[in-house]
Amino acid sequence: MQGSTRRMGVMTDVHRRFLQLLMTHGVLEEWDVQRLQKHCYKVHDRNATVEKLEDFINNINSVLESLYIEIKKGVTEDDGRPIYALVNLATTSISKMASDFAENELDLFRKALELIIDSETGFASSTNILNLVDQLKGKKMRKKEAEHVLQKFVQNKWLIEKEGEFTLHGRAILEMEQYIRETYPDAVKVCTICHSLLIQGQSCETCGIRMHLPCVAKYFQSNSEPRCPHCNDYWPHEIPEVFDPEKEREAGISKSNKRSSRSRQH
Amino acid sequence: MSLKPKSRGRAGVQAERGGGGEEAPSTSRGPGGAASQGGRRAEAPSAPGPRSQKQLELKVAELVQFLLIKDQRKIPIRRTDILRHVVGDYKDVLPELLRRAAERLEYVFGYRLVELEPRSNTYILVNTLEPVEEDAEMRGDQGTPTTGLLMIVLGLIFMKGNSIKETEVWDFLRRLGVHPTKKHLIFGDPKKLITEDFVRQRYLEYRRIPHTDPVDYELQWGPRTNLETSKMKVLKFVAKVHNQDPKDWPAQYCEALAEEEARARPQTGVAAPTPAPSS
Predict the structure, then answer these.
(1) Where are the alpha helices (DSSP H) in chain B?
(2) Do B63 and B81 contact (CB within 8 A), yes or no?
(3) What per-residue confidence (pLDDT) applies to B20?
(4) CB proximity B12 to A under 8 Å
(5) Residue from the list B36, B39, B61 with its beta carbon closest to the beta carbon of A67
(6) Phi, psi values for residue A161, rounded to 5°
(7) Neighbouring C-beta atoms of residue A130, cutoff 10 Å
């Protein structure tokens, strides 16, 4: 991804304020990151040209390298929105969660994670997760409590809930991809196009290869006869649209309207 | 698998960071974080030999994260916690780790690592960047809505001569619709906030006044307040609330001015953490 250019960037108050505020979010969408960047320029360096976001972030990352953290960019699995999170590079575990949750809560997350990874759809039902409550490490947890904990995971953007089923939030994938691939190497699914971890996606019914929805969108863009890249059979699923930030901004007159319609997915 | 203290010649593991590093990822023994497969390795066994740059770097990284997380809750960080949760076997180089962590925190994030009170062995992070009103919209965590209440109490304390009785505080706050016994829409439990939370966060000091019946307490500024703000800033806040000028309170204004002048004079080593040689 990032070249190991040891040429270290320079931090100014613009970058520091950006980092401070970015850290208050577990994960942030690209549009909001751009707003944040502009805000920091406004506070500290009104007249300067706002640097291209990618360069701005690369600059900060070159400084963060020595702290084994980085601002990582990803894409939401359901609709291809670019997202950013400050992730830990050194520890391959669910350590970021460790400071906010008790031992039994972390174990509940691990159980849910395993069910999600093993599932065919990338979703685990609430019922199946709650049935594992007796196997949790640490203090005994009742199902009612576990329901609250699951909601806490949703609020903190580790899980997404859709109609009583849970899958991983983009944030969790960004933070834990490495951990997941190392811990569950046999169960893990991977996208044929981008080779990254795949939780939700579409699969070929003939040969079984999988693709992320945004990867499907890009790969089959303006292709009237989509065929499986591996076995060439017809691709049987609906091809989603490529995420277009401009269209998004025009369509969503007030961002809050968009947010409420997306609240189910995020 | 134990991490052998490595000397030079780390067999080219330098560049490879993401992919399953042979160089042990850190062993942060954070609360509840102990259990995980895969990545964790045990720390160096017996005698701590010379540590490689990379090992130190990793430890500093852990320490920086630990301090950031702890400070987010505004809980002062005790040296003993640092030793227990992060430093462990690296106890002998704690001063060096702290020094490096403090440098990174200030350069990268704009936070100064400061000892709460001299020789208290407790630390907080002080923001070197001035908060700006628009920051609030950019935050992901709604900041602290309780800051308003804190500012009012700090103002009360200062205007009353740096100390105020708890009963007087409630006399005032009741007029604003804030009661010690009633749940408040924004502040929740104001009594708990003022007499417990703010005290624990070291914004306030709360002491019993002897020989009072019924028992009364006095409130003063805590050490964190002195580090994070100033009499002048608080006076300006009070003035703004009354739509007046700070100079309209000459006594307080003089006091605030004197404090500013005192701070402007070169400090005698208050800022940087100066850990004692023997932990």
Answers:
(1) 53-72, 79-82, 94-104, 135-138, 147-159, 166-175, 190-192, 198-200, 223-228, 231-241, 250-264
(2) no
(3) 35
(4) no
(5) B61
(6) -110, 135
(7) 19
Residue for token pair 């628009």:
B134
A138: contact with B, CB 8 A cutoff: yes
Q: Where on the phi/psi map is residue A102: left (φ > 0), alpha (ψ -120 to 50), or beta?
A: beta
Residue among B108, B128, B138 minimizing CB distance to A67: B108
CA B118 to the chain's CA centroid: 15
Phi, psi of B277 (to 5 degrees): -60, -45
Q: What share of chain A is helix, strand, coil (3-state, %, to 5)?
A: 45, 15, 40
User: Which residues in chain A have their CB less than 8 angstroms from residue B111's CB?
Assistant: 20
Q: What is the pLDDT of residues B208-256, one digit of tens each?
A: 999 988 999 999 999 999 988 999 999 999 999 899 999 999 999 999 9
Q: What is the DSSP string of B56-105?
A: HHHHHHHHHHHHHHHHHTTPPEEHHHHIIIIIGGGGGGHHHHHHHHHHHI
How far apart (Å, rounded) are the C-alpha atoms in residues B279 and B273? 13
Question: Residues B168, B173, B174, CA angle at the centre, nearest 5°?
Answer: 100
Residue A31 is predicted with a pLDDT of 93
> Which tokens sit at A91?
């520890």
| pLDDT tens digits for range A171-215 | 999 999 988 998 999 999 999 999 999 999 999 999 999 999 999
- ipTM for the whole complex: 0.82
| Residues recorded for chain A | 266
Q: Name the residue with tokens 């809560």.
A: A105
Alpha-carbon gap, residue A27 to A75, rounded angstroms: 11
User: Which residue in chain B is spatially nearest to A11 when comparing CA positions?
Assistant: B108
Query: Exposed, middle or buried, B157 (CB in 10 Å: 0-12/13-18/19+)?
Result: buried
**Burial label, B210 (beta-carbon count in 10 A; 0-12, 13-18, 19+):** exposed
- Taking the C-alpha atoms of residue A188 and residue A182, their distance in angstroms, rounded to an integer, is 9
